[in-house]
Design goal:
GO terms for molecular function: GTP binding. Required for KRAS signaling regulation and modulation of cell proliferation. Regulator of KRAS prenylation, and probably prenylation of other small GTPases. Required for lymphocyte development and function. Not required for myeloid cell development. Belongs to the small GTPase superfamily. Rab family. It comes from Diceros bicornis minor (South-central black rhinoceros). The protein has 190 residues and is of the alpha/beta class. It has four helices and seven strands; from the N terminus they run ββαβαβαβαββ. The strands form three sheets. It has a three-stranded parallel beta sheet with strand order 3-4-5, with helices on both faces. A two-stranded antiparallel sheet has the order 1-2. It starts with a strand and ends in a 6-residue tail after the last strand.
């Protein structure tokens, strides 16, 4: 449950469903085709990678292309020494969030180097970036910069799903997947 535009007169409560469609990028075609089922009607994508594993962050380009271009099969290595086509992400209208995990496992001397390298990912995707120390719950505490980024991401997802480009609500949609007054009004399964 997410409070859209929390603290404003436009605040409304929405239910957001998250699916983990993980697996290795080069996994069997049956697993890849199963993941593709979840890419229909995607309203937002959270890309999660391991900050201690450079290959994990490089694979985010392949993951994003698989999700954004579900009809096309990405082939070959999309990232080689940081060389790839940034234009593939230029027209993306789906909100993206990049989350790096295991910040706590990177030695202080290497953190700047690793975080600089991964910052380019978020920039290329035109996305917010959150890096998490997995041993410290304060990294997502209410009011923290990471919590604000996560909330903004969910707001963008809701806007993509329920609002027209001019900011007007799509008639009938806000009540369909919204919790109001403690009850679910009407839930539609696509």
């Amino acid at each position: 449950v997410h409070d859209y535009k929390e603290g404003t007169p436009e605040e409304k409560t929405y239910y957001i469903e998250l699916w983990d469609v993980g697996g290795s990028v080069g996994s069997a075609s049956s697993v890849k085709s199963t993941r593709a089922v979840f890419y229909n009607s995607v309203n937002g994508i959270i890309l999660v990678h391991d900050l201690t594993n450079k290959k994990s962050s490089q694979n985010l380009y392949r993951w994003s292309l698989e999700a954004l271009n579900r009809d096309l099969v990405p082939t070959g290595v999309l990232v080689t020494n940081g060389d790839y086509d940034r234009e593939q992400f230029a027209d993306n209208q789906i909100p993206l969030l990049v989350i790096g995990t295991k910040l706590d496992q990177i030695h202080e001397n290497k953190r700047h180097e690793v975080l600089t390298r991964t910052a380019f990912l978020a920039e290329d995707f035109n996305a917010e970036e959150i890096n998490l120390d997995c041993t410290n719950p304060r990294y997502l505490a209410a009011g923290s910069s990471n919590a604000v980024k996560l909330s903004r991401f969910f707001d963008k997802v809701i806007e993509k799903r329920y609002f027209l480009r001019d900011g007007n609500q799509i008639p009938g949609f806000p009540d369909r997947k919204r919790f109001g007054g403690g009850t679910l009004k009407s839930l539609h399964y696509d």
